[in-house]
Amino acid sequence: MKELVGKRSNDFTIDPDGILRFWDRLCVLAKQSIKDEILKEAHYSHYTLHPGGNKMYQDLKQSYWWNNMKRDIAEYVQKCMVCQQVKAEHQRPAGLLQPLPIPEWKWESITMDFVTGFPTTTKGHNAIWVVIDRLTKSAHFIAIKKSWPVTKLAETYVKKMSNYMEFLLTSFLIVILGSHLDCGNEYKTILEASYNLVPHPIRKPTDSPREPF
User: Fold this and answer.
1) How many whole angstroms separate alpha carbon 38 and alpha carbon 119?
2) What is the pTM of this model?
3) Which of 20, 129, 37 is nearest to 76 (CA)?
4) Which among 149, 161, 145 has a CA at the least distance from the CA of 194?
5) Which residue has the higher pLDDT, 181 or 170?
6) Where would I find the Integrase zinc-binding domain in this sequence (predicted)?
7) List of residues 6+ apart from 47 with CB closer than 8 A
8) Sorting pLDDT into bands at 50, 70 and 90, what band is 93?
9) Which numeric CATH code is attached to 2-86?
10) Which helix (H) or strand (E) holds 167?
11) Mean pLDDT of 24-49
12) The pLDDT of residue 137 is above 80
């Protein structure tokens, strides 16, 4: 307490009755039991009706002061069973979880992210493109330049991931065309041509119409 008063000696005064005050507020420096009695009276009184932590602090600080007073009040309110059971929740209820469907094949569905902030390499690369298969969680790390346009990224994607083209190009096109980038038509032809150049297993034709890739 001496250290606290020493740092803020101008804020403390002793009134004519010999009571230490912080400005005009009564300093409570006695045992914890006295603080608990003050908190109990302020929280359970018929005139207050279980106020919340902020309301209770605003009321008590008009008359009392002690070190870490706001923290003690918040902890006291959190321990009140009546408050925890009765207080209404003022936030909107959280929605139900909507997980993505689990892929059936490897590289059928992917996620991607760009990691930047690296020093430039001798080849001029300063970022890493991370492509992750959602089913197996296997990842591919592609060195790129942060300044590359989307067309260059598409070419690099086709070159680096050609072994997984059957499903990967479809996933990539869905991701890019669904993003905020308004440049899908610039490289859609590149992806379609690359997809057609990759061997695919023979599938029996069906009578149902299919949309072109």
Assistant:
1) 59
2) 0.40
3) 37
4) 161
5) 170
6) 32-88
7) none
8) confident
9) 1.10.340.70
10) helix 165-177
11) 84
12) yes
